[in-house]
Design goal:
heterodimer; A: alpha/beta; abc type-2 transporter like fold; B: alpha/beta; Rossmann fold; 2 domains; 6-stranded mixed β-sheet; 4-stranded antiparallel β-sheet; 14 strands; globular
Chain lengths: ~375, ~300
């Protein structure tokens, strides 16, 4: 029996490739990409006080490696929008008279607004901010100002941290909406992934091919029922999220369903494409796993997207889940509106069209 | 466009990797004809049929099916041909009516309900229309498959071993149905392993290792090679068969139960050898007409000699 299994395994080239290849690729990929202590998070600085001291504070933030200051947003409004869209993780507000009050010993405050939808991602950086403040002081508080750095003196200024969108840093609020994307990815790809291979294994594919049906008709027919299945799942998860897990829901249901519909459709096309490629159901399953793992690891579901190296982010940007996570978290926790979600909607559309084109291309009209 | 033939293919070739599955195959089927397609397993019958209905693309060769080019017009061919796959290929988890209804929809039949009802009635299955197809016996499945591929009233039926694994009485009914359809002008190309079925065909073709070895009416094929055949009745034919094989004029021996068929092209030498063998024994010698089966076994062994292949 064992012998027979080994013989069969050896004949199944693709399985064999997967047995050897998957662990290897995944190890390399995720070993390097995964970082629970995310660095280089995009930060907007709104400074109304350009002094020696504020400059060295900002540069200390840069040097800490946690923050990457981007000078794209300079006023309150645009910075807030960037936070909502998830383009920036932090906004640092420096009040106009900060340096003056600092020198007077009035213990002024800086305001750091953090996107806390993902408490883990925000947490480490927020934790580091005290340290950064101290080191900025050490550098500048020399000579006549050295009294500011004296250890026995109280901290000369404070950093107020506002955790936006998820003020209590409840990680459930981040994970449960994310799970919606995770579950949909797995279910949708698997269901349609098996659709075509099942026909092939049962021998009904030959019959189907002998009938006058166009490839697109076959595929659309295969996909349509699962869109309904997907939306039912969305509803179930949504209800559970709100009533069992008590995740706040600030956005609009309409946008949530629009996003979910697109996302479900995108994953179904992936399933259909895998289905056209795979020769049997086992292969379809393996391919699904192969597709699922990067989604799990590189989309920002488990590990903060901004904490990953550039190449990992590039892969992540090619995955529909990455966008759906932004959408669903945004709609749940930030109350995203049309303008906020558009940057994540169009990539889903593009993804869908591209994959569907491939699926139709790979569909074999003959048994050759 | 030639409408003289329902099927007219010439010099079809198909390779899978380095295996030459069909080589230079040409055959013609006339309208209303039941054309039997014979040959051992793996001889290329299924591949040939699939090429005719556009499921496989021939590597070379050309032909028409109902006047449509098999290379370019496979969509049109599919509309007018009923193809019954070798393996039952309807949906086990749909019931009988749902399966028929699906097929009717795929062909876009105008009065779908009526067509399905009529098919169910024809099958005598109106009462069991809601039974799942997966729970049916082989004979019923095969009848449903035939009914399903007849739904769109094709002019040509391509049947790939339709009676494999079906009991004899169901097979007889099936062939009666084929003859009824043929009388209506529908052409049928049917592949089979059964000699009794071969004899029910108007015309036959025999294929081995992808090569068409003979084509024509059953009688003609048997006579074609100029074989004479003798039957020896008696016991212990196995040993006799070995002994006889070595004799001059004997080219082939086949045991059929209590009868040994001995064939050869040199009629005189054959008769002389055999008379000598049975003289003074309990074996009884009798001249007979060369049967289809004898002829086919003869083709087979010669095909093996010629190509060096073994039929596995």
């Amino acid at each position: 029996m064992v012998r027979k299994e080994f013989l069969q395994l050896r004949r199944d080239r693709i399985s064999l490739a997967m047995v050897v290849g998957i662990p290897f690729v995944q190890l390399i990929l995720f070993g390097y990409a995964i970082n629970t202590d995310p660095k280089q998070m995009v930060t907007a600085v709104i400074s109304s006080d350009h002094s020696e001291f504020t400059r060295s504070f900002v540069s200390a933030m840069q040097q800490s490696d946690y923050f990457r200051v981007v000078n794209k947003w300079t006023d309150e409004e645009s910075a807030r929008a960037a936070l909502r869209r998830g383009e920036a993780m932090f906004v640092l507000n420096i009040p106009p008279d900060f340096t003056r009050r600092l020198l007077r010993g009035e213990r002024p405050a800086l305001l750091l607004e953090a996107d806390a939808t993902d408490p883990v991602a925000a947490g480490a950086a927020v934790g580091a901010i005290e340290q950064i403040a101290q080191s900025a002081l050490k550098k500048d508080a020399v000579g006549a100002l050295s009294y500011l750095a004296e250890p026995e003196s109280q901290k000369p200024f404070q950093v107020h941290v506002h955790r936006l969108f998820n003020p209590d840093s409840i990680s459930r609020n981040n994970i449960v909406p994310g799970l919606m994307g995770m579950i949909l990815t797995l279910m949708m790809v698997l269901l349609t992934g098996l659709a075509m291979t099942r026909e092939r294994e049962r021998g009904t594919m030959e019959n189907l091919l002998a009938m006058p049906v166009r490839p697109l008709e076959v595929m659309a027919g295969k996909v349509a029922p699962y869109i309904a299945v997907g939306l039912i799942q969305v509803t179930l998860i949504l209800l559970a999220a709100i009533f069992i897990f008590r995740v706040p829901f600030l956005g609009s249901l309409v946008w949530l369903y629009v996003s979910a519909l697109l996302f479900v459709a995108a994953n179904l096309t992936v399933g259909i494409m895998l289905s056209s490629l795979a020769r049997n159901q086992l292969q379809a399953m393996q391919m699904t796993v192969f597709f699922f793992l990067p989604n799990l690891m590189l989309s920002g579901f488990i590990f903060p997207f901004q904490g990953m190296p550039g190449w990992a982010q590039a892969i992540g940007r090619a995955l529909p889940l990455t966008y759906f996570l932004r959408l669903v978290r945004g709609i749940f926790l930030k109350g995203s509106e049309a303008a906020d979600i558009w940057p994540s909607i169009w990539p889903l559309l593009v993804f869908m069209v591209v994959i569907m084109t491939f699926a139709v291309k790979f569909y074999r009209k003959t048994l050759d | 466009m030639s409408t003289d033939f329902a099927i007219d293919v010439r010099n079809l070739n198909k390779r899978f990797g380095d295996k030459h599955v069909v080589r230079d195959l040409s055959l013609q089927v006339r309208p209303g004809e039941i054309f039997g397609f014979l040959g051992p397993n793996g001889s290329g019958k299924t591949t040939t049929i699939r090429m005719m209905c556009g499921l496989l693309t021939p590597d070379s060769g050309s032909g028409t099916c109902l006047g449509y080019d098999i290379l370019r017009d496979s969509a049109k061919i599919k509309r007018q041909v009923g193809y019954m796959t070798q393996r039952f290929s309807y949906w086990d988890d749909l019931n009988i009516r749902e399966n028929l209804d699906f097929v009717a929809r795929m062909y876009g039949l105008p009065n779908r309900r009526a067509a399905v009802d009529q098919a169910l009635e024809g099958l005598g299955l109106t009462a069991r229309a809601k039974q799942l197809v997966g729970t049916l016996s082989g004979g019923w499945k095969q009848r449903i498959a035939l009914a399903a591929c007849m739904l769109h009233e094709p002019k040509l039926l391509l049947l790939d071993e339709p009676t494999a694994g079906v009991d004899p009485s169901a097979r007889r009914d099936f062939w009666e149905e084929l003859h009824r359809l043929s009388a209506l002008g529908i052409s049928v190309l049917v592949s089979t392993h059964y000699m009794d079925e071969a004899e029910r065909c108007h015309k036959l073709a025999y294929i081995a290792h992808g090569e068409l070895l003979a084509q024509g009416k059953a009688r003609e094929i048997a006579r074609q090679e100029g074989l004479s055949t003798w039957a020896i009745h008696g016991d212990a034919l196995d040993q006799l068969s070995k002994k006889v094989k070595a004799l001059p004029g004997v080219e082939q021996t086949v045991v059929f139960g209590t009868t040994l068929h001995v064939s050869g092209r040199d009629a005189e030498a054959l008769e002389k050898s055999l008379r000598a063998v049975v003289a003074g024994t309990r074996w009884r010698l009798e001249a007979m007409e060369t049967g289809l089966e004898d002829a086919f076994i003869y083709f087979m062994s010669r095909a093996v000699d010629r190509t060096g292949f073994r039929n596995e």
